[in-house]
Design brief:
The complex is a heterodimer.
Chain A (H helix, E strand, L loop, with lengths): L5 H16 L4 H25 L8 H18 L4 H23 L4 H20 L10 E2 L15 H25 L5 H7 L1 H6 L4 H27 L1 E2 L6 H14 L6 H19 L4 H15 L15
Antiparallel strand pairs in A: 1-2
Helix pairs in contact in A: 1-6, 2-6, 2-9, 2-10, 2-11, 3-4, 3-9, 4-9, 10-11, 11-12
Chain B lengths: L2 H30 L5 H22 L7 H23 L9 H23 L8 H4 L3 E4 L2 E4 L1 H22 L1 H11 L1 H6 L4 H23 L9 H16 L4 H21 L4 H15 L14
Antiparallel strand pairs in B: 1-2
Classes of the chains: A mainly alpha, B mainly alpha.
Chain lengths: ~300, ~300
């Protein structure tokens, strides 16, 4: 058996971010932190995609996480980024646990459509609730870490380091989860559900667990994004946000737990560049990139790094 | 007159609009099993083409009564130009792929078209209110409604009847049923399946564009117009049953009336109600109210 190099890779990425972050400009720190947030969501989305389920409503949990963090900051003055992420994880996981009983019964396009409908319900709720700022949303205070408020110039860097620690820990745990029998069930579910049932495993239970983990990761990502951007609005639950996550998932591929973060970073970088070069056609550039990824890299960017098995 | 009749009139008008905007989606899904996200782009394309062509028509001083024909021509023009390019140039190479992958391809195309529209028409809003005001108004319960709304209702009825007639009573409709049921067998029997796909896709996109162009006189045509329409028509079509024509009509009626009721009595829950119904239908009848059971596949 090949030695498992993923933990080593994760550690190297973390060290690289901590060291390089000192020298990088503020805007790049911002892109990296957002890539962590989106990467967390896509890490969870990939768990579902491995089982053949594409959720077009993952923005629901992203948005729940963001509003949990925003609520803590606005209602209780808690701006600690770790506490906010924990709140995001908990609230998203609880909602997903309840919705999971329903969603675990669906496959294919119906799973996608039902998750889409659920995220749009949440969108419809917060768009019309004035206490949450309706369509404008509200601002979230700058982050603190363990009760310490970093100086103005250090906020981005310290949030990035905190985010990198949490996301890479999440990636490591997900990686371990995929090695367990339950985690390894997903591709089998995609291939043939009935055989999985004959082997004695419960498909619904496996999907339910994956769904809750995916939601918890998305909740963490949402809380992190809220604290980083400093503003949240209902758009975070709109279908276009879910579309972006699916986009990143397709771009990254399900080959490794590191892939989502690479994909999210490249997504952010392409978007920033496209937006700088021509603000009116950045969506077009993104669309073409997505098409190219579907046609030329059906297994995602990660397939570039995997040596082809000799025939 | 009670408020109830106002709710009813609003509901009928909104349902008619929804049906026109959504029926093309169910057609394309029913025949090709493609959940077409570019549907919203074609809605926006139709709105822009209708608004700019009608604006030019009226600026030249041509008879304003014919502006309705110009709206129609605008929708026809954009869909005949753009839809075949998409189907022949890209989608036909994707048919072997998974349903969800094709959906993503249309999502990518939606992103591309969104900006293509900005490149062609710019980012400033277009207004053409003349066709809306031209026909005067009628009164219900002391409230004036523009007669233009009746055109929408009429158009929805004509479309529903026309599509039902083509699908049920003509040779083309019967061939189409064969293509839906088993494309490979139809091909073996000499049916030109590729042409059916091309025509269906173009027709579906034309219906979206038609919805857009006939809405253009009632709103200001701005970028991002089609984004809301996509999820809304998804909801309509899913409630009725993906791929079912009577389903689309029923879905439009349900969503239209619900929206009208909630706007009149409890405006805070408008969007919430629509998508809750979509989720409820999916929870209890996943294939929609009119959906057909699919034989189990292993």
């Amino acid at each position: 058996m090949k030695p498992d190099r993923t933990p080593l890779l994760l550690g190297a990425v973390l060290a690289a971010v901590i060291v390089a972050g000192l020298a990088l400009p503020q805007w790049l720190l911002f892109i990296l932190t957002i890539a962590c947030a989106q990467g967390l969501v896509v890490l969870g989305l990939n768990l579902l995609i491995r089982a053949g389920l594409v959720s077009f409503g993952q923005a629901l949990f992203y948005c729940i996480g963001a509003y949990a963090a925003g609520g803590l900051s606005r209602g209780f003055g808690i701006s600690d980024v770790f506490v906010q992420m924990a709140a995001g994880i908990a609230s998203a996981a609880i909602v997903a646990f309840l919705l999971g009983f329903l969603l675990a019964r669906y496959r294919g396009i119906f799973f996608g459509l039902l998750s889409l409908a659920l995220s749009m319900i949440f969108y419809g709720l917060i768009v019309k609730s004035e206490t949450l700022g309706s369509t404008d949303g509200f601002n979230v205070a700058k982050a603190t870490l363990f009760g310490v408020r970093p100086g103005e110039a250090w906020v981005r860097y310290s949030v990035l380091v905190a985010a990198a620690c949490v996301t890479l820990a999440a990636a490591f745990l997900t990686h371990r989860y995929l090695k367990t029998p339950l985690g390894g069930l997903a591709p089998a579910i995609k291939d043939n559900e009935i055989r999985v049932e004959y082997m004695g495993a419960s498909v619904r239970y496996a999907i339910h667990v994956n769904y809750v983990i995916a939601a918890a990761l998305a909740g963490a990502g949402g809380a992190l994004a809220a604290s980083t951007v400093g503003h949240i609005d209902p758009e975070m639950s709109y279908w276009t946000t879910s579309g972006e996550f699916v986009f990143i998932a397709i771009l990254s591929g399900t080959g490794s737990v590191v892939a989502p973060f690479l994909g999210a970073f490249i997504f952010g970088a392409i978007r920033t560049m496209a937006y700088d070069l021509s603000p009116n056609t950045w969506q077009m550039s993104m669309g073409i990139v997505l098409l190219a990824a579907i046609v030329f890299l059906p297994d995602g960017l990660w397939s570039l790094f995997v040596r082809r098995r000799s025939a | 007159m009670s408020q109830l009749s106002l709710v009813l009139v609003d509901g009928v008008i909104y349902s008619a609009w929804l049906f026109i905007a959504a029926v093309g989606l169910t057609l394309v899904y029913g025949v090709m099993k493609i959940l077409n996200v570019t549907h919203g782009s074609f809605y926006a394309l139709g709105a822009y083409a209708g608004a700019s062509l009608t604006g030019a028509w009226l600026a030249k001083g041509y008879p304003p009564m014919l502006s309705y024909a110009v709206l129609l021509a605008g929708a026809l023009l954009v869909s005949l130009v753009v839809a075949p390019v998409i189907e022949r140039g890209l989608l036909r190479f994707m048919y072997a792929k998974d349903e969800v992958v094709i959906l993503l391809v249309t999502y990518a195309l939606f992103l591309v078209l969104e900006d293509a529209i900005k490149l062609v028409w710019g980012v400033n809003p277009y207004f053409v209110a003349e066709p809306y005001a031209l026909l005067g108004s009628f009164e219900v319960g002391g409230l004036k409604y523009p007669t233009y709304n009746l055109i929408l209702v009429g158009l929805a009825l004509v479309l529903a009847a026309g599509l039902a007639w083509v699908l049920r009573a003509t040779r083309v409709g019967k061939l189409l049923a064969a293509v839906i049921h088993d494309p490979e067998m139809s091909r073996a029997l000499g049916v030109n399946v590729d042409r059916f796909y091309l025509v269906t896709f173009t027709l579906g996109c034309f219906l979206a564009a038609l919805g857009g162009s006939f809405t253009a006189p009632t709103v200001s045509v701005v970028p991002g117009l089609g984004v809301d329409v996509i999820v809304l028509s998804f909801a309509v079509v899913v409630i009725g049953g993906l791929g079912s024509l009577p389903g689309a009509a029923l879905g439009a009626a349900i969503v239209g009336l619900l929206r009208s009721v909630s706007v009149h009595y409890l405006p805070q829950v408008e969007l919430f109600v629509i998508y809750s119904v979509m989720a409820l239908v999916l929870a209890f009848r996943p294939r929609g109210l009119f959906g057909l059971a699919e034989p189990r596949k292993i």
